[in-house]
Structure formats: C-alpha cells, structure tokens
Specification:
Helix content is 32%, strand content 26%. It is α+β, with helices and mostly antiparallel strands. It has a six-stranded antiparallel sheet. It is globular and about 50 Å long.
Amino acid sequence: MWEPLRTSPLTGATSPPEAIATVTAILEGYAAKAVFRGFSATGVRGGKAHYRLLWHRDQYFDLTFDPLAQTLRMPLVLPQVPPEMYRDYQAFVEGCFALERPEHRRIDATRCTVQLSRRAGTVGLTLLSLDGDIAYAVRKLIHLVHETYLDFLYDGRYYSYLIETFNLDPDEAR
C-alpha cells in the first residue's frame, strides 16, 4: 500500500521523529513570516503529528502528518461546498499538476499525489509524498490551500459562496 519512509535527498530525514521535526520547522517558518495568524503543534498521538493553523478568513485548519504513510492531511479546507463547486475544485486541483503551470506553482506528479474528499459538504485534502521529500510535500500542500483561497475562490464564480460561508461584507469581500 504505502511505501516506507525513505531518506529525503533534500531534508535528510530518515526517521519519523526527524520527518516530524522537518514538518514542524517548515510550518513554524510560515508562522514566523506571518503566513498564518496563529500556529500550534498540538502533539504527536499514535505516531502522527497534529497541528492547528489559524489562516484564511480566520478559519482554523487542522493538519495531520503521518510520517510512516508519508501523508499530510487537512480534513477541512473548504466548508459547505455544493456538488458543482466540488467538481470545479477537483478540476482546479488537477490543474495544479499541469505542465503548463510555472514550475514554482506546479505540483510534480512524480513527487506527490493529492486526494480530495467531500463529506457532508466539507472538502478535505490529503497529500501523499511519493519520493519521501516531506519538505517538498508540506510546502506544496500549504501552497495549494493558499491558492485555493486566493485564486480558486476569487475567480468570480464563488462570490456568493464567500459572502455566505464566511459572513463577509459584500462591499469588502476581498
């Protein structure tokens, strides 16, 4: 099913504790740069590291890193998503792998896969590192969620969703 944790050529992480330390350091770096409004590493349970981020639209995002499975999971990226919007979001995520995208904004399909889920309208993401480079994987997950809120939601089709879901002032929705 999942491949075992391998040594990353970029981070050198070879063990679950080292991989967790790598993820924590990267997230702390984003927090130090004020990408997140709040950040906490909430502990390691069952071998998985748990984090909480206060981020877009003052929403909390829970992130779970499983170093053995090499997965990063955010169970709630977008709330209250109707089926048509979910289909559009699937296409948006697929587009993030497109070779036409600039390399710095593209997710390399040989290095990561992204699985979407939708339960009771809640959309979540799971990113699987294929090459063991957890640093690359966590950065791509953060970039994907960031682009979700800055690009996908603001392309014009989801103005009403933004207003209703996040209780925004229609005159200042940006």
